[in-house]
Amino acid sequence: MTTRWGIASTGRMAASFAADFSSATDAELVAVGSRDADRARAFAEERGIPRSHGSYAALLADPEVDVVYVATPHPQHHRLALAAIEAGKPLLVEKAFTATFAGAQEVVDAARAAEVFVMEALWTRFLPAVVKAQELIDDGAIGEVRAVQADLGSQRDFDPSDRLFSPALGGGATLDLGVYVINLAQQFLGIPTTVHAAGSTYPNGVDATVSYLLGFEDGRSAALSCSLESQTPSRAIIMGTGGHIELEPRFHHPSSLVLRPNAGEPQSFSLPPRGVGYGHQIDEVGQCLSLGLTESPTMPLADTLAVQAVMQASLDQLGVEVREDDSVQI
User: Per the database record, which ranges form the GFO/IDH/MocA-like oxidoreductase domain (predicted)?
Assistant: First the structure.
């Protein structure tokens, strides 16, 4: 059965997501919503989307839309997600899920109470190379996982008017890039018992480059970093007692991985995603809805909360203030 999608927003991320629907299975983009009716109409006409709405409320009320992808800036996710849950509309929420841990907890509590499907759009978990890494680890290919190393960096010129650097719009390295490295550690190590963050900030107070050291039970650890100031190698290594797996750059949308056991020859796996890669998470949402699930077993809400908690603790240590924007008009 075809899953009918609507997109809330007409920004850069919405455009990228819309362009990759051709790589999904049994999914159709049927509507877009924005607070600006003209922008919604232009977005729809350019992409052949049948309907546009001049408010998010109208999009959420559209009976022809089965699920909504929220692509607004991070601080607006909280308000929009709560409105969608109240309307009973399933959601895929762009990462970072919310701007704050408290906001994420409120959305998760509301979704669970209403039994409405909600998933964070951490597309990396659904890409073939990462799925293969999980399978290899589950099969014992590298023994017990003991540590994760990962970095993700992209050099951007500081522009306080750009969303990436705007405090009001949830800018900064952690919410845009750190979410990937922290998610990877959470996926393969679980919930940390200690979080230590060190880094730099821009003149307006948002975080620029951050390193995270996470401690886990039994001495396991993760050494992670992200940056908006430097184009880093952007690779990830998952280390175990029997070897390690490298997700080759850029690890958050890898096309290949290498298994290097302690004993034996390395094995390379070429596993490119379909299209850009968003189609894999689109398929996951469709499958979950067809099964009547309210959470994804691959990207459950508990994992979202665990990642949000690490980001919140890190930003607090750096003295970076983040807030939800509940003034956004629905």
Answer: 131-246
